[in-house]
Amino acid sequence: MIETTPTAERFERAREIYQKITEQISKLYVGQDELVLGTLTALFSHGHVLIESVPGLGKTLFVRTLGKVLGCDFGRIQFTADLMPSDITGAPVFDMKESEFRFHPGPVFTQLLLADEINRSPAKTHAALLEIMQEYRVTIDGVSHQVPRPFLVLATQNPLESEGTYNLPEAQLDRFMFKLIIDYPSSQQEAEILRMHSKQIDLNKRLHDEVATVTSPQEIRDLIALCGQVRIEDPLVDYINNLVRLTRNWPSLHIGASPRAGIALMQSARTLAAFGGRDYATPDDVVEVVLPALRHRVQLTAEAEVEGRRVDEELTALIRSVEVPRS
C-alpha cells in the first residue's frame, strides 16, 4: 500500500502513476494536454472541471478512456431543457412486491460523470448537482445517499451557441475547481486523429484491447490523501493569497475571486507537486493553474468588455504584477 512506504518513495510512486495514466490515455486520445493535466489535477484534488469547447473534440472519448485507465465507473448525462432534477439524482420508485418505496439511483451515482452541455438545462436542474459536487451525496426525502468515491464531474458547454441555453449561476461556477478552454488540435495532431479513428473499429473493443488499467479507486483515494501532505511554505501561501485578493481590486474586474479560489490554488499546486514526485510546492505549480482556477470566478467590468478585453489577458497582467516568492 502507498501509505506504508517511506515518504520519498510514496511521491515517486505518485509521479509514476501520473506518467502511466497519461501514457495509456494517449493510446486513444491525441493531444489536448491542458485537458488531460487539468482533469487529473482536479481529480486528485477533490475538484471538478468545467470544459468550454466546440462539439466534436472527443470529450466523451476522453472520459471513457480515463475511466478504463483509472478502473473507475463512467457515466454521461445529456442535459436538455426538459431534464428534471430527479433524472440526475434518481427518485423513489414503488416496489409492488414489498408495497413500499425504494430509492432508484440516478446516473449521478458513478465515479466519472460527464455532464454534457450543462448550460442547456434550467437552474433547478443545475441546483441538483450542487450538493453532490460539494458534499458527495444525494438527499432524497430526508435520506442521504453517498456517491462512490473518487467522484469527478466534467461539465461541458458550447461557447458558440447561446440560443436555448441558461447561464450557470455564480454559486455553481464557484463549485468547479477549473474552467478549461479547449481549442482545435494542431494540424499534426488532427492528422493523427484521422489515422487513429477512421477504421470503424468498435470503441469498446479498442478500450479493452489497447488500453490498460494502471490504478484503482482505492489507490486513487490513497494518492488524494498523499497530495494533501505536500508542503506549502508560508511565503507561497502569501503569494496565493495576494493573487486572489488582488482580483477584488483589479480595475478591469467587476467581481473578484472568493476564498474558495485560494483553496483551489493550494490544493491543485499540491497535486502538481506530487505529479512531479515532490513533497513541496513551488511558485511554478501555482502559476500553472492560476488561469484555469480563476477565469470562471471573475467578471470583467462593462467598460472592459466594450473595449474588447479578455479575462485571461487581465489575469495574466495581474499575475505579472505580483512579486513571486524566492525559494
Throw out a few tags for this protein.
single chain, 327 residues, alpha/beta, Rossmann fold, Helicase, Ruva Protein, domain 3, 2 domains, 46% helix, globular
**Main beta sheet strand tally, sense and closure:** 5 strands, parallel
DSSP summary: helix tally: 14
Give me the CATH fold name of the largest domain.
Answer: Rossmann fold
Proportion of beta-strand residues: 5-15%
- Residue share in helices? 40-55%
Q: How many beta-strand runs? A: 11
Plain-language structure description:
- Residues 48-178 form the ATPase AAA-3 domain.
- Belongs to the MoxR family.
- One of its GO terms (molecular function) is ATP hydrolysis activity.
- It is a single chain.
- The chain has 327 residues and is of the alpha/beta class.
- It folds into 2 domains: 2-223, P-loop containing nucleotide triphosphate hydrolases (Rossmann fold), CATH 3.40.50.300; 230-321, Helicase, Ruva Protein, domain 3.
- It has 14 helices and 11 strands.
- A 5-stranded parallel β-sheet has the order 2-5-8-1-9.
- Strand 6 (137-140) and strand 7 form a beta hairpin.
- Residues 1-5 have low confidence and may be disordered.
Write the layout of secondary structure elements.
Blueprint: H1 7-25, H2 33-43, E1 49-52, H3 59-70, E2 74-78, H4 85-89, E3 90-95, E4 100-105, E5 112-116, H5 123-135, E6 137-140, E7 143-146, E8 152-157, H6 170-173, E9 178-181, H7 187-196, H8 203-210, H9 217-227, H10 234-246, E10 253-255, H11 259-275, H12 283-294, E11 299-300, H13 302-306, H14 311-321
Parallel strand pairs: 1-8, 1-9, 2-5, 5-8
Antiparallel strand pairs: 3-4, 6-7, 10-11
Helix pairs in contact: 10-11, 11-12, 12-14
